[in-house]
TrEMBL record:
PROSITE patterns referenced in this protein's UniProt entry, alphabetically: SIGMA54_1, SIGMA54_2, SIGMA54_3
Record-stated family: Belongs to the sigma-54 factor family.
Keywords attached to this entry: DNA-binding, DNA-directed RNA polymerase, Nucleotidyltransferase, Sigma factor, Transcription, Transcription regulation, Transferase
Residue span(s) of domain RNA polymerase sigma factor 54 core-binding: 76-259
Protein name stated in the entry: RNA polymerase sigma-54 factor
Function: Sigma factors are initiation factors that promote the attachment of RNA polymerase to specific initiation sites and are then released.
Single GO BP term: DNA-templated transcription initiation
Residues annotated as signal peptide: none
InterPro entries given in the database record: RNA_pol_sigma_54, RNA_pol_sigma_54_core-bd, RNA_pol_sigma_54_DNA-bd, RpoN_core-bd_sf
GO molecular function: DNA binding; DNA-binding transcription activator activity; nucleotidyltransferase activity; sigma factor activity
Keyword presence, Transcription regulation: yes
């Protein structure tokens, strides 16, 4: 066997993710508020970084509040703001027809209501605050447990779930036994729970499925109405030549490279000269990175607005389907860049201040020339339910038929899924609520 050595030349491309590249990627998904915090942190570490923030201008009147977060419901933002938990609970208490004395005492219960919908104080303290005895407090509480949604004014988790089980007519003796042993369920001790309830796992599983369908914090559905507002990162206005998009410069920080006598003093030594050059280069890079972030954000926002002009004119029912790849191809960047830019940005439009991510929707085919976005279809379902006759609420099958008449083919399970996403009860539950509220 003959052995020999040889040299082979080849070319290979690779991307080295440096610390500066990682920071540049992070800048793309920062809103103005986070960007300011980041630049201020850099300014503390680098004497040559100077951050300037213009005085914040007030938002124009009529602009809806903004909500962030990946789990934020885009349709909720496109709809009119609902009442707060306190306002809703007050209206529900007024419908109970309490006597003047009990209605006055009920204010103590309303004051004790937590964002979860539970009572945040023991009943004896509530009775003392309302100027009533404990027996009267128990009587008023029993009436308050009849408000919608079921579970409000509960004193603990078990009571909250029991009220909902009664409402849904699923409170069997086994279900009640499970509620009495919730600590075992929380510890995932299903075998111990089965023994405590004197049953087996086969009988226990369907009860646990029913239990998981209930809402442990019924007051949380009202949290969106009271969430704080923050200024948008992009602002859409209509001009003579169409829709215009601009950065919200009233909250947009800018980076300047500071030049003063400190530079001359530091450069007197070789070590000081090296440090100065390094810090100045970092400051210049940060200045360029922020400018690139602003330019990319503006390009993405402008392309989104260009494609969603019908929504800006007419509202949520005209939100067209759009995916990240469309925007990326249009402005010549990678799809991941568009994803990062749209993750934390808020955009102010005539329809309200929304996350930029809210404009991206899957498409649902129809019989027309254009497709409907999933968000637009959910908005149509919400409108149908809002306009229904309380005496004859629309079933999911009826909604499917009505959608088909409009050229939109949906499966019944799709309607049920969208209805749940919109926090719309079933037709049976809506009929029961209408009877309770006197609307039917």
């Amino acid at each position: 066997m003959q052995l020999s050595t040889s040299q082979i030349l080849s070319q290979r491309q690779s991307l080295v993710v440096t610390a500066q590249l990682q920071q540049a990627i992070q800048l793309l998904q920062m809103g103005n508020h986070d960007l300011l915090s980041f630049i201020e942190e850099q300014a503390e570490q680098n004497p040559f970084v100077e951050v300037k923030v213009p005085a914040q201008a007030p938002l124009p009147t009529g602009v809806a509040g903004a909500r962030g977060g990946d789990d934020w419901d885009r349709i909720a933002a496109l709809a009119e703001e609902g009442p707060s938990l306190y306002a809703h609970a007050t209206a529900e208490v007024d419908r109970l027809g309490l006597s003047p004395e009990h209605r006055q005492a009920a204010e103590a219960f309303l004051d004790a209501l937590e964002p979860s919908g539970w009572l945040g104080q023991p009943l004896d303290l509530i009775a003392m605050a309302g100027g009533i005895d404990l027996d009267t407090a128990e009587e008023i509480l029993a009436q308050l447990h009849g408000v919608e949604p079921a579970g409000l004014f509960a004193r603990d988790l078990a009571e909250c779930l029991r009220l909902q089980a009664i409402e849904n007519e699923i409170l069997t003796p086994l279900f009640d036994a499970v509620l009495k042993n919730l600590p075992l369920l929380a510890a995932a001790d299903l075998k111990g729970l089965a023994r405590a309830c004197d049953t087996d796992m086969d009988a226990l599983r369907p009860v646990l499925r029913q239990l998981r369908s209930l809402n442990p914090k019924p007051g949380a559905i009202f949290e969106g109405s009271t969430s704080g507002q923050r200024p948008p990162d992009l602002i859409v206005t209509k001009g003579d030549d169409g829709w215009n998009v601009d950065l919200n410069r009233s909250t947009l920080p800018t980076v300047h490279v500071r030049r003063n006598e400190t530079i001359k003093q530091l450069r007197t030594t070789e070590e000081g000269k090296t440090y100065t050059e390094d810090r100045i280069n970092v400051a210049r890079w940060l200045q360029r990175a922020v400018e690139h972030r602003n330019m990319t954000t503006l390009k993405v926002g402008a392309e989104v607005v260009k494609r969603q002009s019908a929504f800006l004119e007419h509202g949520a029912s005209h939100l067209r389907p759009m995916i990240l790849r469309e925007i990326a191809d249009a402005i010549g960047v990678h799809e991941s860049t568009v994803s990062r830019v749209t993750t934390g940005m808020l955009i102010q439009t005539p329809q309200g201040t929304l996350p930029l991510k809210a404009f991206f929707n899957a498409a649902l085919g129809n019989k027309g020339d254009e497709s409907n976005s999933a968000a637009a279809v959910r908005h149509k379902i919400k409108q149908m339910v809002a306009a229904e006759n309380p005496n004859r609420p629309l079933s999911d099958d009826t909604i499917v038929k009505m959608m088909k008449e409009d050229g939109i083919d949906l499966a019944r399970r799709t309607v049920a899924k969208y209805r749940e996403m919109l926090n719309i009860p079933s037709s049976v539950q809506r009929r029961r609520q209408a009877v309770v509220s006197g609307a039917a």
